[in-house]
Design a protein that fits this description.
The complex is a heterodimer of chains A (294) and B (348). Chain A has 294 residues and is α+β, with helices and mostly antiparallel strands. Chain A contains eight helices and seven strands, in the order αβββαββαββααααα. Chain A is elongated, with a radius of gyration of 29 Å. Chain A starts with a helix and ends with a helix. The relative contact order of chain A is 0.14. Helices cover 67% and strands 0% of the residues of chain B. Chain B is globular. Chain B starts with a helix and ends with a helix. Classes of the chains: A alpha+beta (294), B mainly alpha (348). At the A-B interface, helix 1 of A face helix 1 of B.
């Protein structure tokens, strides 16, 4: 009777097979039409390490601490920074990642205690020129903008007890430069400067209002400039300083005006020129800046 | 219109019908296989890749014409032509619509003609395999000859049951007989066993998976057309898909009532204005619609089966053909004869 049972087995297996393929027939394809539409990449996809920006202030989150440079097993990261002679805070001069050597191990992202680095999934980074594979700070920030979020404070590391911090998984926010504060340019401010800058801006606005009132008072009384504080620039609020203006807040330790003016070196001058709020920018040369401060 | 001119027009129409459908079928096969495998299939050539077959055909036509060194040139060149001719010849007796205008030629021996014309493809397969001077081609054509001869027996035996019920060998007669038998008049309901045998045997005749032993690409490179390329290979493909189309159309005619089906004129009893649809060109359009619809049902089933079942072994193939299909079809003929005489509805 194996003849009939064979026939029955054949019919049954054909029916089962047709059922399986018939079910698959109506399912959506898993194909991603890559060049036409971008693939749906998971958060753990690692394509290029990028620098994040704090969108609420426009400051880059990197503190130039150098932990990523040390963590990198293949020495792709190169950092040069200078220190503010007064506040002892660090600023990035050069931050380069050599993508021709990077092996996308994610160690730099895990090492960063300030959530400044992220492994982006922008994998279309191929080029026919190896020099273009050395990513400078500006480019890292531009690409990293799509992973940036507004945060008032830099997140401190939460991996004290071991394990991975949350931010090793990239979260794409698709932010653009339009989401940044209008008065800050990409890569202009360090996250350490922001608090100081806010305070200075407030102090400056206060001082401007005071000087305005004084000027009005002076216009009434013919004695000129007596009510005006000598340290503060006499400018209407919001005016763009033509040169580097040491807008020094009352509570900040005061270097001499001359030292501050000298400290502003040409390679940072253009950045400073756009800096409407007049943040004190120490010299690009850390030794010199320190020397003058002393 | 002189009969010669009419014949030429009909012949061109048949060639155009097969050619256009083959273009579509190759695309459809790739799409159905892709959808079953959760892919998308051709997407780049035109919207949804609809021009893919045209592009492939153009490529094949422009390729160099290669004839292998040791090949028997006459056989090698003739084989694809005979293959296409046998696929085209069948369309002479397949009805597209009602009456003598809906068929190229309503031969009274239609079924015999189909069996004879499609048998030529066996010859073309063996010619190509022998003429290629290639061991894989020869293996493929030997298998193909054995397979097609053994399944042709079961195929014709299964059709015999239908012919007995219809009392005619003409496909047009078989179709009208089904339409006149009322509800469940289709021979799908009266001849279910013959239908299943026809489906299996036709798959084997078409050399499609699970019976594609003669071009089994995992064993024989490409079987009988291993040495073919360019336009000759294209002709083999045209013949293969032309055969699939014709076998599906024959299945629709034999078991699903061919071109018969309700058209808009069917509603003339309720809406008098619809009487227009019972005259002129409308019955032909309705008939053509149902013919194409039913044909494509079978084509879809064929493709569905191809992407479901794996290939059978050669001994399994012979077992199925000789030990299952042939005896069952003989029993079916006997049972049909008995039922025809004792059951009034069955004979109607």
């Amino acid at each position: 009777m194996s003849y009939w049972s064979n026939i029955w087995a054949g019919i049954k297996s054909t029916a089962v097979g047709l059922g399986v393929t018939g079910k698959e027939f109506f399912q959506d394809p898993v194909t991603e039409q890559y060049p036409d539409e971008m693939p749906n990449l998971p958060g753990w996809f690692r394509a290029v390490p990028l620098q994040k920006t704090d969108l609420s202030t426009g400051a880059y989150k990197c503190t130039a601490c150098g932990l990523c440079e040390q963590a990198c097993p293949v020495d792709t990261i190169h950092i040069e920074s200078h220190q503010d002679p007064v506040t002892k805070k660090k600023f990035i001069d050069v931050y380069e990642i050599d993508m021709s050597r990077c092996m996308l191990c994610n160690y730099c992202v895990e090492a960063c205690p300030f959530d400044a680095l992220v492994m982006g999934n922008d994998f279309e980074q191929a080029t026919d020129n190896t020099e273009e594979l050395v990513y400078d700070f500006k480019r890292l920030l531009e690409l990293g903008l799509a992973y940036s979020k507004p945060e008032e404070q830099a997140v401190k590391s939460n991996n004290v007890g071991g394990g991975l911090p949350d931010w090793v998984f990239a979260e794409k926010t698709n932010a653009t430069e339009a989401d940044m504060p209008a008065d800050v340019k990409l890569g202009e401010l360090s996250c350490f400067v922001i608090d100081d800058q806010r305070k200075k801006a407030a102090a400056k606005a206060k001082a401007d209002a005071a000087s305005k009132a004084a000027a009005e008072a002076a216009a009434k009384t013919p004695v000129e400039g007596t009510a005006q504080p000598t340290e503060l620039p006499n400018k209407p609020a919001g005016a763009k300083p033509a040169t580097v203006e040491p807008a020094i807040p009352a509570d900040a330790p005061k270097p001499s005006a001359q030292a501050a003016a000298e400290a502003a070196k040409p390679n940072l001058a253009e950045v400073a020129a756009d800096n409407k709020d007049g943040v004190p920018l120490a010299g690009s040369n850390p030794e010199k800046g320190e020397g003058e401060a002393k | 219109m002189s009969p010669i001119l009419a014949s030429i027009i009909k012949g061109v129409a048949a060639l155009a019908w097969v050619g256009i459908n083959v273009l579509f079928l190759v695309w459809l096969e790739r799409k159905i296989s892709a959808w079953i495998q959760n892919r998308m299939g051709p997407m780049k050539t035109g919207r949804w890749g609809w021009m893919q077959t045209l592009a492939d055909g153009l490529k094949c036509i422009m390729k160099e014409d290669i004839i292998p060194g040791g090949a028997d040139k006459a056989l090698f060149v003739l084989a694809p032509m005979i293959s296409v001719a046998s696929a085209m010849l069948v369309w002479i007796v397949i009805p597209f619509g009602p009456g003598n205008n809906g068929i190229f030629s309503d031969l009274p021996i239609g079924i015999i003609f189909i069996a004879a014309a499609t048998s030529f493809s066996i010859i073309s397969v063996f010619m190509s395999g022998w003429g290629s001077n290639n061991k894989y081609s020869l293996f493929g054509s030997m298998r193909g000859a054995a397979q097609m001869i053994s399944y042709e027996v079961a195929l014709v035996m299964s059709i015999l049951g239908v012919v007995m019920l219809a009392g005619s060998l003409s496909l047009q007669d078989i179709i009208t007989r089904q339409a006149n038998s009322g509800l469940f008049g289709w021979y799908l309901f009266k001849q279910p066993v013959a239908f299943i045998i026809y489906m299996i045997a036709a798959l084997a005749e078409l050399n499609r998976t699970p019976f594609d032993l003669m071009e089994a690409e995992s064993e024989l490179v490409s079987g009988y057309h291993t040495e073919y390329s360019g336009i000759r290979w294209l002709l083999f493909m045209l013949a293969e898909y032309g055969h699939m189309l014709s076998w599906s159309a024959i299945a629709a005619a034999l078991f699903l009532g061919g071109w018969t089906g309700p058209g808009l004129g069917y509603f003339a009893g309720w809406i008098p204005a619809f009487n227009v649809f019972n005259a002129g060109i409308w019955p032909y359009l309705t008939g053509f619609f149902w013919f194409a619809f039913k044909t494509y049902i079978f084509i879809f089933i064929t493709m569905w089966l191809r992407w479901t079942l794996p290939r059978v072994r050669i001994d399994q193939l012979m077992d199925i053909g000789w030990k299952f299909l042939l005896p069952v079809s003989l029993v079916n003929i006997a049972a049909t004869a008995v039922l025809y005489n004792v059951w009034g509805w069955y004979a109607r």
